[in-house]
Amino acid sequence: MEKITKEGKVFEEVLGEILKENHLEEKDVFYKQNEKKGGLFKGSTIEVIVYKKDDVYHEIEDYLKEIITGLGLEVSFELKKSDEQTVIKMYSNNNPLLIGKNGQTLRSLEVLVKQMIHTKYNMFVKIVLDVENYKEKKDANLERFAKQMANDVVRTNTEIHLDNMTSYERRIIHNALTNFSGVTAESEGEEPNRHIVIKPSK
Q1: N or C: which end of the chain has fewer CB atoms below 10 A?
Q2: Tens digit of pLDDT for each residue in 22-40?
Q3: pTM above 0.85, yes or no
Q4: Of 138, 141, 28, 140, nearest to 83 (Cα)?
Q5: Is residue 13 within a helix (H) or strand (E), and if so which, with residue range?
Q6: Beta strands in the chain (DSSP E)
C-alpha cells in the first residue's frame, strides 16, 4: 500500500500540499499526523501520513478473502461508499455460515478487520461489513421496531426499556428516533448490559 508522507509546520497546509501534489481530494484518503520534536533551537514539525482509501479497502478485501477461503468458502466483494459510511458486501457460497448465529461471525470479522488496520497503520477506519443484504435488512427491521415502540410510548405515555443491544444497534435506534415527535431515546447501563430507554417527551 502506498504511504504518502510530508512534514511542515501547519497540519492543514501540509495535508493540502499532499492532496494537491497527488491529485487527490480529502474524501479520497485516510490521514493522520505525528508531532516531531525538534532539537535545541529547533521547533517541532508535523508529519502528515496519507493512505488512499481505495488501497485500504483493497487490503481489507485481501485480508478477508484469506480468512474466508481458509474456512473453505468462496467469496466475492462489492464496495458501497456514501458520505456516512463505507460498506463492504460479501457474497459467498454459504452465507449462513459467514453470517453466523445472530450475526456473530460477521461481527467478529468486522472486529478483526478494524484490529488489523489499527495494528498495521495505527488508524481507526469506519467500515461496515455485510453479507449480501443481511445487515441492511436487519437494520431496516430494527428501525421499524424502534418506531413501533415509540408509537406505543406516545399512546400510553409510559417509557419502554428495550433489551440490551450492541453500540451499533443502539445507534440505529437513536438515528431512527432522532426526529420522532413525542419521545426521547436514551442509552442506560454499562456494557455489555447497555440498553435504550424510550421515554415520553416532557
Answers
A1: C
A2: 999 999 999 998 887 766 6
A3: no
A4: 28
A5: helix 11-21
A6: 4-8, 29-36, 45-52, 75-81, 86-92, 128-131, 160-164, 183-188, 195-200
